[in-house]
Design brief:
Low-confidence stretches: none
Oligomer: single chain
Shape: globular
Strand content: 35-45%
CATH architecture: 3-Layer(aba) Sandwich
Radius of gyration: 14 Å
Number of strands: 5
Helix content: 25-40%
CATH topology: Trna Endonuclease, Chain: A, domain 1
Length: 122
């Protein structure tokens, strides 16, 4: 497996473990709707959480979260709308980012809850 794919998987695994530790249940990983994809979909009593995980081994060009572009945010909003309709879920939606840095055995994850809102894109 390519090194960047393995790095991304490690980041997603770390994010899932941290979400579960916070009491969220993982509903799906790498869920796709047409050409759109969400890394992790999780839930708790209040929200369905759509999570984008960005993992890097180097932060020379900025922390991983800065690479979640406005286009990616718009696409996740579209995907979330489809997921909620397909599964007939009537909960609030939240969009989170996990910014993960992994260098060798060193792992650091920053969880940015409610990283953006749909209202900005209305």
């Amino acid at each position: 497996m390519a090194e960047h794919i393995e790095l991304g998987k490690r980041g997603e695994n770390l994010a899932c473990a941290l979400l579960e530790k916070k009491g969220l249940k993982i509903l799906a990983r790498n869920w796709q709707l047409r050409k759109l994809e969400c890394d992790i979909i999780a839930t708790n009593d209040d929200f369905v959480v759509f999570v984008e995980v960005k993992t890097r081994s180097n932060i020379s060009y900025g922390t991983p979260d800065v690479f979640v572009t406005r286009d990616k945010q718009r696409n996740l909003i579209r995907l979330a709308d489809g997921y909620m309709r397909i599964h007939n879920i009537q909960k609030e939606v939240r969009f989170d980012i996990f910014s993960v840095v992994i260098r060798g055995k060193y792992e650091e994850a920053v969880h940015l809850e409610d990283a953006w809102t749909v209202a900005r894109y209305g």
